[in-house]
Amino acid sequence: MSSTPFSSSPCVALNTGLQMPLLGLGTYKLCGLQDVHRAVDAALCAGYRAFDSAAVYRNEAELGKALRALLPKYGLTREDVFITSKLGPKDQGEKAMEGALHSWSQLDLDYIDLYLIHWPGTQGLPVGDERNPGNRAQSWASLEELHGQGKLRNIGVSNYTPAHMRALMQSCKVPPAVLQVEFHPRLCQPELMSLCKQYGVCFQAYSSLGKGELLSDPVTLDVAKNCERTPAQVLLRWALQQGVPVLPKSSNPERIQRNAEVFDFTLSDTDMDRLSALDCGQRFCWDPSEVA
Ligand code: NAP
Question: Which of 41, 103, 231, 276 lies most in the core, judged by the most C-beta atoms within 10 Å?
């Protein structure tokens, strides 16, 4: 299995043998070609080589279009970037093949580097509905098939709980390469982290900045002041220093640039511990723990 070079961006090796950049641009709420183009331009310029989209973000086509237009500007090719997208919860189950192929054709970039089941539940089914496990299994089988065809280079899951992960690991033919979940100092997810380590699944963080709300946390601010970094850089570094890939979202070119300056400093053990001590199980996004 060959590895993909992402020259300017530090990477983690996935269980497929392929590499994934540790830093990616989140794109939730980036809408319309103009905004997506501007953010992708700033990100490529700042050294980002990964981009995180999803069917529900309704920006896959714009992301593909922006990349096709901008890669030559930076002397880059398709192989130099890592694109993630996700199956919408409305397509969980029998519509998974159609949903994944729709993402693939919207992006129009030959292949998708990483495709995730976005959410363990199915849109429209009540929480706790017993059809959920069957739908998840059907979705995973479709992703495995498209992985076999080379359309999805890596496949994975998002928002899975430890119970969902155990069930998937018992039944899959291809193990998930990545689990993408909410992760920041107020939600440290120790059980999921150690399960991923045990299973050889890459644990990836979303909402590292708590959707912006953690940027004004007093401990974050104090650590940032001590190490003369921005609060966002501190929060991203806290994850990276634990080996966890991050996906900060910004639509602002200057913040996109500053958020990428996270590989040239180290947080002390004391600062890491102070941040980790904020863990209180607080979520800024959806809570999957009640999905059957
Ligand atoms: P986030 O990255 O934690 O925070 C984004 C917010 O912080 C935006 O409002 C942004 O505003 C602001 N921000 C970013 N950098 C900043 C800086 N340096 N200074 C001040 N404000 C800053 O939130 P997120 O979008 O929820 O998560 C990141 C990505 O993870 C998403 O975009 C998406 O790709 C992924 N995600 C996945 C899931 C899932 O279910 N799998 C769920 C949530 C998120 P501006 O844009 O104005 O800068």
Answer: 103
Rounded Cα distance between 101 and 178, Å, is 20
Query: Diameter of the chain by CA atoms?
Result: 53
Say how many Å lie between the CA of residue 27 and the centre of ligand 1. 8
Report the nearest-CA residue for atom 20 of ligand 1: 212
Active site (annotated) includes residue 57 = yes
pLDDT of residue 239: 98
pLDDT, average across residues 198-223: 98
Please name the residue whose Cα sits nearest to atom 29 of ligand 1.
26
**How many Å lie between the centroid of ligand 1 and the Cα of residue 50?**
15
- Are 122 and 131 in contact by the 8 Å Cβ rule? The answer is yes
pTM of the model: 0.97
- What is the bridge-based pairing of β-strands 25-26 and 112-117? unpaired
Q: Is the CB of 209 under 6 A from ligand 1?
A: yes
Whether pLDDT at 2 is above 50:
no
Rounded to the nearest angstrom, the gap between the alpha carbon of residue 117 and the centroid of all alpha carbons in its chain is 11
